[in-house]
């Protein structure tokens, strides 16, 4: 049997980059930003997996609860989310398995 934890990842658009931030005991503080949203999404997933594996001493795989295509559709439907300096901060969940 494997353990599943949920980590909340905050998204914001800052300085021309899609930014994801995490503050969680399972991973510690993580900040990922990239100008291409898909790259940032993949980087935060990979970084969560690596960090949780290192801190727990067991192999951990992070999976976003929201597939990238759904996340990107959310971005397109919420234009203020991509406006630099807009006061938008949304949390999405990633599972650590």
Give the low-confidence spans.
none
Helical segment count:
2
Strand order of the largest sheet: 3-2-1-5-4
Order of helices and strands: EEEHEHE
The number of E-state strands comes to: 5
Terminal CA distance: 10 Å
Structural class: alpha+beta
Radius of gyration: 13 Å
The portion of residues assigned to helices is: 25-40%
**Shape, please?**
elongated
Percentage of residues in strands: 35-45%
Mean pLDDT: 84
Largest sheet: 5 strands, antiparallel
Could you provide a short overview of the structure?
This protein is an alpha+beta fold and 97 residues long. Helix content is 31%, strand content 36%.
Can you lay out the helices and strands and say which pair or pack?
Layout: E1 5-14, E2 17-24, E3 28-34, H1 37-56, E4 62-64, H2 68-77, E5 90-96
Antiparallel strand pairs: 1-2, 1-5, 2-3, 4-5
Molecular structure report:
This protein has 97 residues and is an alpha+beta fold. 31% of the residues lie in helices and 36% in strands. It has two helices and five strands. The chain has helices spanning 37-56, 68-77, and strands spanning 5-14, 17-24, 28-34, 62-64, 90-96. A five-stranded antiparallel sheet has the order 3-2-1-5-4, covered by helices on one side. β1 (5-14) and β2 (17-24) form a beta hairpin. The radius of gyration is 13 Å and the shape is elongated. The mean pLDDT is 84.
